[in-house]
Design goal:
about 120 residues; mainly alpha; 2 domains; 4 helices; extended
Length: about 120
């Protein structure tokens, strides 16, 4: 399968490399293949997430799979929330452990770890 060869190429490139921040995965992915063309990598952020509060952008009015009484219903979803201005904070203990790791990380990666929200 094509995806298996992509993952294998990325893993080979990672074998002797180091990942310090998430954006390092993009660099490794782009460098994993040169010919015929490099792999495409997209940095995912909140700008790619659909704003579900704007009903004009909805494809469907309902996520219910059926249309009449007796048809299947969706019961496992409790809520869908879109909040790009609210990154989910990590636990304080995890934040402090990550701060200790900065001793072995390049200085240009420190600001990423310093700016993580925590509670």
């Amino acid at each position: 399968m094509e995806c298996d060869s992509v993952h294998a190429a990325i893993e080979r490139k990672l074998k002797n490399g180091e990942i310090h921040i998430l954006s390092d995965f993009i660099s490794v992915t782009l460098e994993a293949r040169k010919n015929p063309t490099p792999y495409e990598a997209i940095h995912v952020d909140y700008s790619l997430v659909k704003d579900f509060s704007d009903k004009s952008t909805w494809r469907y009015n309902s996520i219910r799979p059926g249309r009449k009484a007796g048809d299947q219903v969706v019961v496992d979803i409790r809520a869908i929330k879109y909040s790009p201005e609210q990154p989910i904070p990590i636990a304080s203990a995890k934040f402090h452990h990550l701060q200790q790791l900065k001793a072995v990380l390049p200085r240009d990666c420190h600001s990423f770890y310093d700016n993580l929200p925590y509670v």
